[in-house]
Amino acid sequence: IALLRAFAKDAPLLFLDEPLSALDEDGISRLIEAINQVKENRITIITTHKKEILAAADEIIQMNAIN
């Protein structure tokens, strides 16, 4: 429900923190498709550990932990 609310708002910034967690393959595909549709005309920032969503990115910033 939180994702639907975020998608429905016409806010200029969309921040998604691990949106693919707890989704199966079909759910991941559908969510990536939805993200591609709503990211037009807004800044979309996604934090994730899943590589599947990288195809939706215009730019990627990779962060590594410092030990």
Question: Can you give a write-up of this model?
Answer:
Helices cover 31% and strands 15% of the residues. With 67 residues, the protein is α+β, with helices and mostly antiparallel strands. Strand 1, helix 2 and strand 2 form a beta-alpha-beta unit. The chain is globular, with a radius of gyration of 12 Å. The chain starts with a helix and ends in a 20-residue tail after the last strand.
Outline:
With 67 residues, the chain is α+β, with helices and mostly antiparallel strands. The chain has helices at 2-8, 25-38, and strands at residues 13-17, 43-47.
Which segments are poorly predicted (pLDDT under 50) over 5 or more consecutive residues? none
What is the spatial order of strands in the main beta sheet? 1-2
Quaternary form: single chain
Strand content: 5-15%
What is the topological layout?
Blueprint (H helix, E strand, L loop, with lengths): L1 H7 L4 E5 L7 H14 L4 E5 L20
Parallel strand pairs: 1-2
Q: Which labels suit this protein?
A:
alpha+beta; 67 residues; 2 strands; single chain; 2 helices
